[in-house]
């Protein structure tokens, strides 16, 4: 049976490919989403992708994933470090949660070292570039 995965991206990730490519690489968000869908097909995962710069929209998307998705791969961007609301929404989600950060947040500014989402995440992938999304999907595919 196919698992459904929501790949959720937060603020400024819509600017991938042009925003600080020395940190975030040259792939666009469309490239990342396409790679996730292609790998999802290979792994028998149904992959749905969404992005918002709005904290409230992200909370609503997480809430709507309850009962419709088996797992969430989330890169909440800067909201990882500030949003209790996103953490609370994730705490209501019964499925697997994998947190992804393109850069190694632990080698950056001190305020980026803490993620509220990590307290709920079943796994955290940092510093692997956009490959982190694919690593997350591979992990989800191997989980019962």
Automatic annotation (TrEMBL):
Record field: catalytic activity: 3-dehydroquinate = 3-dehydroshikimate + H2O
GO molecular function: 3-dehydroquinate dehydratase activity
Keyword hit for Zinc: no
Swiss-Prot/TrEMBL keywords: Amino-acid biosynthesis, Aromatic amino acid biosynthesis, Lyase
InterPro entries per record: DHquinase_II, DHquinase_II_CS, DHquinase_II_sf
Record EC number: 4.2.1.10
Gene3D superfamilies in alphabetical order: Dehydroquinase, class II (3.40.50.9100)
Domain of life, per lineage: Bacteria
Binding-site residues, substrate: 75, 81, 88, 102-103, 112
Principal EC category: lyase
Active-site residue list: 24, 101
GO biological process terms held by the UniProt record: amino acid biosynthetic process; aromatic amino acid family biosynthetic process; chorismate biosynthetic process; quinate catabolic process
UniProt pathway annotation: Metabolic intermediate biosynthesis; chorismate biosynthesis; chorismate from D-erythrose 4-phosphate and phosphoenolpyruvate: step 3/7
Site (Transition state stabilizer): 19
PROSITE patterns: DEHYDROQUINASE_II
Function: Catalyzes a trans-dehydration via an enolate intermediate.
Subunit description: Homododecamer.
Classification via PANTHER family: CATABOLIC 3-DEHYDROQUINASE
Family listed: Belongs to the type-II 3-dehydroquinase family.
Name under which the protein is recorded: 3-dehydroquinate dehydratase
Organism: Palleronia salina
């Amino acid at each position: 049976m196919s698992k459904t995965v929501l790949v959720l991206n937060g603020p400024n990730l819509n600017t991938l490919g042009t925003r600080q490519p020395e940190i975030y690489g040259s792939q666009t968000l469309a490239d990342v989403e396409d790679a996730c869908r292609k790998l999802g097909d290979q792994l028998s995962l149904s992959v749905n992708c969404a992005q918002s710069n709005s904290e409230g929209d992200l909370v609503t998307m997480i809430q709507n994933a309850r009962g419709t998705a088996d797992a969430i791969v989330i890169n909440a961007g800067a909201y990882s470090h500030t949003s209790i609301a996103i953490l609370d929404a994730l705490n209501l989600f019964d499925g697997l949660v994998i947190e992804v950060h393109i850069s190694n947040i632990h080698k950056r500014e001190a305020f980026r070292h803490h993620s509220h989402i990590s307290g709920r995440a079943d796994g955290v992938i940092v510093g692997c570039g956009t490959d982190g999304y694919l690593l997350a999907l591979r992990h989800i595919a191997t989980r019962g």
